[in-house]
Amino acid sequence: LLELSGHFEIQKVMYGFCSVKDPQAVLPKYVLVNWVGEDVPDARKCACASHVAKIAEFFQGVDVIVNASSVEDIDPGAIGQRLSNGLARVSSPVLHRLRLREDENAEPVGTTYQKTDATVEMKRLNREQFWEQAKKEEELRKEEERKKALDARLRFEQERMEQERLEQEERERRYREREEQIEEHRHGRRKQRSMEAEEARQRLKEQSIFGDQQEEDDRQQLRKSESEVEEAAAIIAQRPDNPRDFFKQQERVASGSSDAVSPGSHRTGRLHCPFIKTADSGPPSSSSSSSSPPRTPFPYITC
After folding, report:
1. Is the separation of the CB atoms in 46 and 31 below 8 Å?
2. What is the pTM of this model?
3. Handedness of CA 133, 134, 139, 141 (dihedral sign)
4. Which residues does 11 contact at the CB level (< 8 Å), separation at least 6?
5. Alpha-carbon span 250 to 88, nearest angstrom
6. Residue 169's Cα: distance from chain center in Å?
7. Is the dihedral of CA 278, 279, 283, 284 positive or negative?
8. 27-61 residue pLDDT tens
């Protein structure tokens, strides 16, 4: 054991296997030393905590497993006492763990004195330190996870707010563009309406001017017609005889001559017209008025 203890280093996790000669036994006993240096990182200690059973199964026939972190823990006297008191482990690591658990829970009978076992005490301290360190690491891990989740949530919220802001700006831009288009359309419609109204006013003005001109032309035509009628009436008034009386007299002459002519008589070569007389016709009939004016001669009309 002394020679073996000189090879352990405080910065490493090492395993030592040696034989110890028991004067009371015929065969030597085999001891497995589980060395965990004081300067070994806690993460390395946690990783190698479950390797002892595998090492014990690899070395068949291990009687005692000694957990040590310093040279003082490898005490040949204590190890020899464990071997002589029958506390040596059997080859099965499961039975050895059960025996160690019974040793930890065992209480002396009939006395208040408790024997301090350096190995058990060291294991208990190591176990407590291990679980305390594991608990601290678990709390640190959970705290780190909470921080990461909080950062991720904050980053997601910021991205979501930025996306909403961009979408809001895009909606406002489209709304402004549509408002501008509607305003332009309204302005164009108002301009078109104003142009149409101006054209309508121009047409009405032109129609009114044309109507006034037409009305003026009608009035002038009416005045011209009235002047012509007045002129005709004045000319008629200046005549010495009345044409209507002349035509009435001719009608009476025609009616008298038609009664004198027989129905079977027929005159050829000339068209007989009661209203047409020659220049050498006879004097007017006795039935005509004595005050009638002289007749105007008319030429013959031939067929």
Report:
1. no
2. 0.31
3. positive
4. 37, 39, 40
5. 184
6. 12
7. positive
8. 788 899 999 888 888 888 888 888 888 888 888 88
The mean pLDDT value for 242-249 works out to 73
Residue 269 gets the label, from left (phi > 0), alpha (psi -120 to 50) or beta, of: left
d(CA 295, CA 110): 194
Q: What are phi and psi of 90, to 5 degrees?
A: -80, 180
- Can you tell me the distance from the alpha carbon of 189 to that of 182, in angstroms, rounded to the nearest whole number? 10
Q: What is the pLDDT of residues 61-112, one digit of tens each?
A: 888 888 888 888 888 888 888 877 754 444 344 555 666 666 666 555 556 6
- Closest-CA residue to 31 (of 21, 44, 41, 23): 21
**Helix 93-105 with 118-238: angle, nearest 10 deg:** 100
Q: Are 45 and 13 in contact (CB under 8 A)?
A: yes
Q: How many CB atoms lie within 10 A of CB 66?
A: 20
Residue 131: C-alpha distances to residues 51, 124, 156, 257 (Å): 17, 10, 36, 168
Residue with structure tokens 């001017």?
209
Sheet arrangement for strand 29-36:
13-20, 29-36, 64-68
Helix intervals (H) in 239-296: 243-260
Identify the burial level of 198 via C-beta atoms within 10 angstroms of its C-beta, where 0-12 means exposed, 13-18 middle and 19 or more buried.
Answer: exposed
Question: Using an 8 Å Cβ cutoff, are 39 and 69 in contact?
Answer: no
- Phi, psi torsion values for 5, nearest 5 degrees: -65, -20
DSSP string over 6-68: TT--TTSEEEEEEEE--TT-SSPEEEEEEEE-TTS-HHHHHHTTT-HHHHHHHSTT--EEEEE
- Structure tokens that stand for 65 in this block: 């497993």
Q: Residue 292: beta bridge partners?
A: none
Cα 154 from chain centroid (whole Å): 25
